[in-house]
Amino acid sequence: NAGVTQTPKFQVLKTGQSMTLQCAQDMNHEYMSWYRQDPGMGLRLIHYSVGAGITDQGEVPNGYNVSRSTTEDFPLRLLSAAPSQTSVYFCASRALGEQYFGPGTRLTVT
Amino acid sequence: AQTVTQSQPEMSVQEAETVTLSCTYDTSENNYYLFWYKQPPSRQMILVIRQEAYKQQNATENRFSVNFQKAAKSFSLKISDSQLGDTAMYFCASINYGQNFVFGPGTRLSVLP
Description:
- The complex is a heterodimer.
- By secondary structure, chain A is mainly beta.
- Chain A is 0% helix and 54% strand.
- In chain A, the strands form two sheets. In chain A, strands 2, 4, 5, 6, 9, 10 and 11 form a seven-stranded mixed beta sheet that branches.
- In chain A, strand 4 (31-37) and strand 5 form a beta hairpin.
- Helix content of chain B is 0%, strand content 54%.
- The relative contact order of chain B is 0.35.
């Protein structure tokens, strides 16, 4: 049972490049979400999904796209990377009142 | 909207001593959960303790316990017999039934030898 997996662990992008952060869970959870973590700001919700084919915006969605074609996978796409998107990104899945986090991706945009 | 506040950006405690981390939250709901998460230098988010709002009894997990004051909307975390491995960021979080998690800004705890 792998839980929530994320790839890559580290990534450096140049301004304007695009990329996809991968997230997968093997717990059959309907609810999945993406957060970004910045110093002094805790975790802020980017996008979330309550099931395959259903996604919605969180607190800070601008510059990011998501899709949910299967229960297991919830990729996060950066369309045109900006230095303001330098952050640590966490994917999570949820069941009842408990949330399970992936190991995080540290993204640097230069 | 839910909000979570942690007023202590940094704290330190001597090994084997007790420390309390503060958290206040704001919600208009009656049904909600409260959490403390630990984030060590490895970056992994680890659930420390969970409290259901309808339960009056304070949750405990080994050396970790909470003081849940529902009327005051306060949810502090007490760590007893602090260990070097407790050094981490600690995040308080809340979730209303059917809604999204909201996290506080975190408290960086250093346990000193």
